[in-house]
Amino acid sequence: MRRAVAGVALATFLGACTAPAALEDRDRTASPSAATVSTSAPPSPETASPTPAPDDAEGIQAARTRFAGRISTIPAALERELVGATWRPGCPVPISGLRLLRFNHVGFDGKVKRGRMVVNADVAEDVMWVFGQLFDAGFPMKRVDLAREFHEARWEEQPHSRRSVTASFNCRVVVTPDGPGSTFSQHAYGLAVDVNPLQNPYVRSDGWVRNRYARPYVDRSEDLPGMIRDGDVVVRSFVAIGWSWGGRWSGGKDYMHFSRAGR
What angle do CA 130, 180, 152 make, to 5 degrees? Predict the structure, then answer.
């Protein structure tokens, strides 16, 4: 009888040890590696869906050893944060047309961090898939968070910043090194993403960059952390979902900028 009880206990212990490994293997096969990104077609619905992040604190910590993400409608608390800041009446997309993404990413220190991003509901799954590719490839991002409110009147006074936040939705006009424009940016629709803006600045056609802290990154032959280079995993992944890169524009180059409309 004592031997039978011991056998049951051993089987239970072994089952507990092997179950997480099996789940981990399943997650790896569900998310294709960066090397398998197709530049000719968007990802299939099966690969576009991210692994959901567990709700409990212990589960979220465990999920940070691999890519995990969650897509949700805009919570009431976040809606209050957006309204009057990055969203206001008259914006080209309603709050109901936006989605909140939460996902893991690799930081500049090599550690796995958790970020949040607001995008258009139509592209939420595709954008999540892209960031899964960047995570698998180990591409670092300084920080992933919501955009800040854009103050057109104060833009001329505050051109310099070391802030480098990967973000998407922001109901604002187009902004170039020469100043704000008069038409809505693709960010106002949640259909554009800026990746590591400090390391991937908007460079005017004559080579000038407004933010002095971004000027060390004008030489695109450099291979510095967080820089995007033509043909790398960042460009390939966005191209795979049908988006275009500002680094391929004629004239000025917006190296941080990816958008569905190509502008």
Answer: 100
Q: Pick from 59, 152, 155, 157: which is nearest to 114 by CA? A: 59
Q: Does residue 75 lie in a domain region?
A: yes
- Residue 196: partners with Cβ closer than 8 Å, 6 or more residues away: 141, 142, 164, 166, 226, 227, 228, 256
Q: What is the pLDDT of residues 35-81, one digit of tens each?
A: 333 333 455 433 333 443 333 333 444 456 789 999 999 999 999 99
Question: How far, in Å, CA of 54 to CA of 39, rounded?
Answer: 31
Decide if 121 is inside a domain. Answer: yes
pTM: 0.76
In a domain, 82, yes or no: yes
For residue 88 the two structure tokens come to 């206001």
22 assigned to some structural domain: no
Domain tally, the chain: 1
Task: Give the structural domain span for 207.
Answer: 51-259
**Mean pLDDT confidence for 239-245:** 98
